[in-house]
Structure formats: C-alpha cells, structure tokens
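Need the bound structure for NDP, inputs here:
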Amino acid sequence: MDRYAVIGHPIEHSKSPIIHTAFARQTRQDLSYQALLAPLDGFPDTVRKFRAGGGRGVNVTVPFKLEACALATRLTTRAQAAGAVNTLTFNGDIIVGDNTDGAGLVRDLILNLSCPLAGRRVLLLGAGGAARGVVLPLLQVKPTVLTIANRTVSRAHELRAAFASHAGRSAFTAGGFEDLEGWGFDVVINATSASLENEVPPLPECIFAPGAFAYDMMYGAGDTPFLAVARALGVTRLADGLGMLVEQAAESFALWRGVRPNSASVLSRLRRKLAVPA
Ligand code: NDP
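Answer from helper R.:
Posting the output first, comments after.
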C-alpha cells in the first residue's frame, strides 16, 4: 500500500487525512494517509524517516511550507513563484516541490462557486504566505484588476513587485487598506489571518461593488468575522475557505495518483461535519 501523510505542527486539527482517505476510497486507489507531527526543529528529519519507510509523498502545512521549499530538489513554476511548498512527491532521489493552494482557490471560486475571475476586479487582502501562494494563479485567469492590500503596506508592495512581470494586461496594484477608499471590486478575497483573532481588517464599505463575491480563506461553522461584515454590508454571495482546502487536496491527489477525485461530494460531507459542534 502506498503511503502518504500531512506534516505540520500542530497537526491534530488537520482535515487532510479525512479528505485524502475519502478521495482514495472514491477512486479505488490503494493508499494510506496519516497525520504526522514534526518537532519544530525536526521537519527534514521527519520527511527523511517517512521516505525511508516507503512514503511516496507528503502535504506540508504550517509552519513548514518554507522549509519544504528548501528541501525540494526540483520546484514547479508555481511553487517557485510562491516561494512555499505544500506538496512533496518522492521520485527516487528527486523530491518535487509543488504548491496547490492557489489552484485550489481558483478552482473553488470558478467551478464550485460559479464566480468567474476573468475580466473581474479582484481584491486580495493580506500579503502573507497564503496570499503569496495565490497571486500567480489569480493573474493567470486574467482579472481586469488585481489589487493587493495589506496592514503592513510595504509587504503588499513587495508582493506586487515579485509578480509584476506576470500581470499581462491586468491592472496590478498594491497599497494599504485606507488606499481602497473610493474603489469597488467584484471579488474580495480575505487572505489575512485576522479572522483567526476574531478581527476584520479596517475596510472601506465601498470595496464591495454591487453583486460582489466575498471569500474568506479561513473556514468554520457559520460566518467568519470577515463574512459577517460583508453580509452586514449587503453582500449575498459569500464563501469560506473549506472549498479551497478540499480543492488543494484534490490537486495534490491528482499529482500523486494521476486521477482527479470528485471533490464536490467530499466537500459537502465535510461541510455537514463542520456544522455539528465537536
Ligand atoms: P501569515 O501569517 O503568513 O500572514 C498573515 C496575514 O494576515 C498578513 O498579511 C498580516 O498582515 C495579516 N493580518 C494578520 N492579522 C491581521 C489583522 N488583525 N488585521 C489585518 N491584517 C492582519 O498567514 P497565512 O498567509 O499563512 O494565512 C492567512 C489565512 O489564510 C489564515 O486564516 C489561514 O487559515 C488561511 N489559509 C487557508 C487555506 C485554505 O486551504 N483554506 C490555505 C492557507 C491559508 P501583516 O503583513 O501586516 O502582518
């Protein structure tokens, strides 16, 4: 049986084993998938032992995505652009590093939520690891505008500069939250971790254009603080990041196994589980 795992610290909360086990059952792939806790100073060693034991690949989560990038002997274009890796594939002596987070977000928005991005004005809030991972896939679907806004304004500018050569015909801008005054967007994606602290970035009300879609990468039972604010401002098309989580997993699974699972059924099962308090 082929072995896979997700490595992080902490890791008990991870839904990846449930998702990948469901994908394997659905596609009749003979594999096992476990959660592995790595010590904070022991990520490379944990990977080495897992490989030595016959592991075929791992997903990588907080706080090891940068270390996974350094450990890979070959990087995909999107992993190189993101500077972070969430999927490692072991191929003999080669360790391929990929980043499926951005593809997961874009698939969730376009396919699951019927929210097109091409020709739309897209606002990305945040300039941390999650934001960095989605900029290239967002530019690749050709929005008319992609604006990055962040609390630490210099980080927003740095992120824009890193991807400026990929902007094509999109107007690609960056700034602080106060610079958004007077601007409206069709899709607003919250990639800050503010919701984790029960906070919402200080945003001008105008950012939600009529019919706008509000998306929070964080997920949970009920509205996140960001989605609650958007709803209070009259936004009716909203989603949290559970679909992104399932879609990035589906992308990893397809890379490893050469078969794309049906993510919709797994997503709706997870959604039902999330609605029931533990
Ligand atoms: P990072 O720590 O790398 O970045 C945090 C970002 O949030 C920074 O831009 C930071 O701004 C900003 N921020 C933090 N607190 C506040 C606040 N109170 N007000 C405004 N801005 C704030 O985190 P990640 O990028 O890794 O994660 C961001 C979010 O994305 C998390 O909620 C995470 O759970 C989610 N995520 C979801 C995934 C999914 O599959 N659904 C996948 C990956 C991430 P500054 O630069 O000023 O510090």
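Comments: The pocket of NDP is lined by residues 101, 126-131, 150-152, 155, 191-197, 199, 201, 217-219, 241, 244-245, 248 (CB under 6 Å). The domain at 102-240 is CATH 3.40.50.720 (Rossmann fold).
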